[in-house]
Amino acid sequence: MTANPQILSELNDRSREVFRRVVEGYLGTGDPVGSRTLTRSMSEKVSAATIRNVMQDLEFLGLLEAPHISAGRIPTQSGLRMFVDGLLEAQLGDEDREKIEASLGASEDDVTAMMDRVGSALSGITQGASLVLAPKREAPIKHIEFVSLAADRALVVLVFADGHVENRVFTPPPGQTPSSMREAANLLNAIIEGRTISDLSNLMAEEVSARRQEIDALAHDLIEKGLAAWENEGERSERLIVRGRSNLLGEGADAASLERIRSLFDDLERKRDIADFLSLTEEGEGVRIFIGSENKLFSLSGSSLVVSPYMNADRKIVGAVGVIGPTRLNYGRIVPIVDYTAQLVGRMLSGPKR
């Protein structure tokens, strides 16, 4: 049974407290919470029988479930969602704040290195797996070159005005020749000065159309595929940093759970469904929480994702940071950690460049 979001506001104080304490107990230990345990922690003195009746009502409403006969209760996925949306108390601790700030260090030109440190710090602090979606590089380009590696593989080399060099391997159209690659590069280099990859993508349609008679069809295809290595799948796959996989593969997990988690990370490492993760960063500010099957990318492993986008100086979302863990994550601690990390990354990316 799926819980109605309005149910929480309709619960009386006793039912709300029982629900909150069951969820908090489960998030803390991973074990079902029984009525006798709750009698020792309730704010009012009530019998175990009374608490059992309340728990049965909450089970009927779809907020709790009993994993075993005569066991305590654990929250359902709907119950976890209701707790996160309506009862979660999140506050960033001083120790976590200091660890996050120390991991980023001073502002620097090497954004990739900074993002790698952010990912390692997030996985270390939260004991989960971290995902960091690095920002696109928007520095002006100085030079572009296509290099043939094999009949079905080519390399795009970008030299940025600040001296940074990046390359991507892609599959060129059939029948490419060294001359067609030179022609494609010459066209791009003639219009590239002072422009970013985004600028180039916007200009290519009109430039190719205006000079169509000068460009051999193969060179045209090569240009389109070469730029796609940055703007589409190639760009996305290289921008995703995953750290802390071993945190989800520790001792105590059953074989089926381990296999589901391995499958999740195999998918990530093969860069499947990365578009789904990217889309999470395009739907507005603030931390978003996906529990279990709520997000297709993580439904197989039964994991939760806490993710927050970060912005550049123009208040444009350019990337995201997140943490994957079991559905019984300590949301009250993880949410502010992810939120603060995203804010800090945004401030550092927006800061003055030397």
From TrEMBL:
<keyword id="KW-0678">Repressor</keyword>
<comment type="similarity">
    <text>Belongs to the HrcA family.</text>
</comment>
<dbReference type="InterPro" id="IPR036388">
    <property type="entry name" value="WH-like_DNA-bd_sf"/>
</dbReference>
<feature type="domain" description="Heat-inducible transcription repressor HrcA C-terminal">
    <location>
        <begin position="114"/>
        <end position="335"/>
    </location>
</feature>
<dbReference type="InterPro" id="IPR021153">
    <property type="entry name" value="HrcA_C"/>
</dbReference>
<keyword id="KW-0804">Transcription</keyword>
<dbReference type="InterPro" id="IPR002571">
    <property type="entry name" value="HrcA"/>
</dbReference>
<dbReference type="InterPro" id="IPR023120">
    <property type="entry name" value="WHTH_transcript_rep_HrcA_IDD"/>
</dbReference>
<keyword id="KW-0346">Stress response</keyword>
<dbReference type="InterPro" id="IPR036390">
    <property type="entry name" value="WH_DNA-bd_sf"/>
</dbReference>
<comment type="function">
    <text>Negative regulator of class I heat shock genes (grpE-dnaK-dnaJ and groELS operons). Prevents heat-shock induction of these operons.</text>
</comment>
<dbReference type="InterPro" id="IPR029016">
    <property type="entry name" value="GAF-like_dom_sf"/>
</dbReference>
<keyword id="KW-0805">Transcription regulation</keyword>
<protein>
    <recommendedName>
        <fullName>Heat-inducible transcription repressor HrcA</fullName>
    </recommendedName>
</protein>
<dbReference type="Pfam" id="PF01628">
    <property type="entry name" value="HrcA"/>
</dbReference>
